[in-house]
Amino acid sequence: MLYTVGEMAKKLNVAPSTLRYYDKEGLLPFLERSGGGIRMFRDENFEYLSTIECLKKAGMSIKDIKTFIDWCVEGDSTIEQRLTLIDQQREAVLKQMEQMKETLNMLEYKHWYYETAKAAGTCAVHAAMKDDDVPKEFRDTREKSKGLPCVE
Question: For residue 25, is pLDDT > 60?
Answer without folding.
Answer: yes
